[in-house]
Amino acid sequence: MSTEDRTIAIVGAGQAGGWAAQTLRSEGFGGRIVLIGDEAHRPYERPPLSKSVLAGEALAETTSLQKPEAFDALNVDWRPRMSATRIDRASKQLHLSGGDVVGYDKLILCTGGRARRLRIPGSELPGIFTLRSIDDAAALGAALAPGKRLLVVGGGWIGLEVAATARRKGLDVTVVEAMHRLCERTVPPEISAYLLRLHASHGVRVELGTGIERLAQGANDAGLLATLVDGRTLACDVVLAGIGLVANDELAREAGLQCEGGIVVDPQCRSCDPDILAAGDVAVWHCERAGRRMRLESWQNAQEQGIAAARSALGIEVSHQPLPWFWSDQYGINLQIFGMPAPEHRAVVRGDMQSDSFVVFFLDVGKVAAALGPNAARDLRFARRLIERGTNVDASQLADPQVPLSKL
Q1: In which order are the strands placed within the sheet that holds 358-364?
Q2: Is 249 exposed, middle or buried (0-12, 13-18, 19+ CB in 10 A)?
Q3: What is the C-alpha to C-alpha distance for residues 161 and 73, in angstroms, rounded to an integer?
Q4: 3-state secondary structure (DSSP) of residue 198
Q5: Cβ contacts of residue 220 below 8 Å, gap of 6+?
Q6: Paired residues of 114 in beta bridges
C-alpha cells in the first residue's frame, strides 16, 4: 500500500498532536491525516498561558504552533470541537462524538491531560478556576483585576507562575501548599528554598504544610472564604486550583490498552497495540535516566515525543529517551532544569544561592546527573553537555566560577 492510500489519525490537537501532524508531512507522508481536537483552537503551546497571555501582554493567537497558512499547507483533515469516543481495534476504526467513524492504519493518541479540580465543599462556587487551555487563560485573566485577592491552591509550577503574574498585575496573593516545601515533587530542597525567598520578596504569602478544607461565599456575597485544615480562614476573591494533572487515558483504557496513570508506551512510542502510539502528557514511558516509568509533563517532551511518534508510525527507527528539560519564568527570572535530581545525588553549588543567578549540579559517582538554576542559561548549556556525554568531573572545579565550564 502506498502512503497516499494510508490514513493516520491523531487524537489530540495540542503541542504533541500538532508536531506529530507536521512531522508526518515533513517526513514525506502523502496520505490522509485526520487531526481531532476537542478545542476550537488549532494546535498551540501552553507555557505562555500562565505568563504573557495571562498578563495580557500577548494575544492567544501568538501561542499557535504554526501560522494559519503553514497549518493549511499541511493539508490535514482537521476536526475541531470533536472528541474520540471509542477505538475499535479489531476493525481499526475510531468513533467520534459527532457520529463519524474514521478508519485508520496508524493511530497516535495525544490526548494530554486535564487540570485536577478541587473536591471540597464549595468547590463549585463562582470565582474558582483551573488553567490548562486558552479559554481557561481568558477566563482567569479577566478575573485577575488589580486590588483583588488571589488564593492559589498548590505550590507547584503552574501555581507559582500564576502567582507571579498576578503580583505583577497588582493582586494580593496567597499560596497554600499541602506539602512542606514548594515544588517538592520536582526540585530538591535548595531550589524550594530559593523559590520561597523569591515569592516572599515579591509580597506573596506562602502557607506550607496545610490545605483547604472548604470554600464558602463571603459575608454579603463579598468574595470567598477559604477554611484551612488547621481552622484558620482566608478571605479571597479568586481561587486558582493548581493541584496537578489527570492523564486523559480513558479512551485507551476502554480499548484495552495498558495504562498506568497514562498510556504505557515503548521507546518507539508504541502502545501494546503496535498500530496505536501515544505521545505527550498522556504517555507513560521507561526513562532510563530515572530507572522507572514516568509521564513527563513538559513543553520539550510534548514536542519531541510527538515528533518521535510520527516517525515511528512511518516505520522510521526511533528511540525516545530525551534528557528531561524544564523551564519556568517568574518575576523576570528564568529557571531551568536539566536531568532529574535525586536525593542520593551530591549537590554542588556554583555561585551564590542568595542571588538570582547560580547553578546547582547533582553528581552521581563523579558524573553530572542533573543541573538547575536561575538566570544561568550559558552555564546550563555546558551542564547539559556534561550530562549527555557522561563526563567525569571534579566537584571543586564545578563549584569554582573562575573555572570555565567549557574546559570541563
Answers
A1: 325-330, 333-339, 367-374, 358-364, 346-351
A2: buried
A3: 35
A4: helix
A5: none
A6: 246
pLDDT of residue 220: 72
Residues 140 and 54 sit within 8 Å (Cβ to Cβ): yes
- The CATH number of domain 117-241 is 3.50.50.60: yes
What span, in angstroms and rounded, lies between the C-alpha atoms of 16 and 20? 6
Q: For residue 381, is pLDDT > 90?
A: yes
Identify the CATH class of 332-407: alpha beta
pTM of the model: 0.95
The pLDDT value given to residue 176:
98
DSSP code string of 313-344? HTT---------EEEEEETTEEEEEEE---TT
Q: How confident is the model at residue 2, as a pLDDT?
A: 59
277-301 confidence digits (pLDDT tens): 999 999 999 998 888 899 999 999 9
Q: How confident is the model at residue 4 (pLDDT cuts 50, 70, 90)?
A: confident
Backbone angles phi, psi at 382, to 5 degrees: -70, -35
Helices (H) and strands (E) counted in the chain, each on its own, are 10, 26
Q: Binning pLDDT at 50, 70 and 90, where does residue 405 land?
A: confident
- CA-closest candidate to residue 240, choices 121, 331, 147, 144: 144
Contact 73, 32 (CB under 8 A): no
Which sequence spans correspond to the domains of the chain?
3-114+246-313, 117-241, 332-407
CATH superfamily of this structure's domain 3-114+246-313: FAD/NAD(P)-binding domain (3.50.50.60)
Find out whether 386 and 407 touch, Cβ atoms under 8 Å: no
Question: In 10 A of CB 16, how many CB atoms?
Answer: 33
Model confidence at 1: pLDDT above 60? no
- Cα 12–chain centre separation: 15
Q: Can you give the pLDDT at residue 335? A: 97
Q: Do domains 3-114+246-313 and 117-241 have the same CATH topology?
A: yes
Whether 363 and 369 have beta carbons less than 8 Å apart is answered as yes
pLDDT the model gives residue 406: 83
206, 338 contact by CB (below 8 A): no
Residue 148: band (very low, low, confident or very high) from pLDDT cuts 50, 70, 90: very high
CA–CA dist 84, 179 (Å, integer): 36
The region, left, alpha or beta by phi > 0 then psi within -120 to 50, assigned to residue 103 is: beta
User: Which of 328, 213, 259 has the alpha carbon at shortest distance from 111?
Assistant: 259
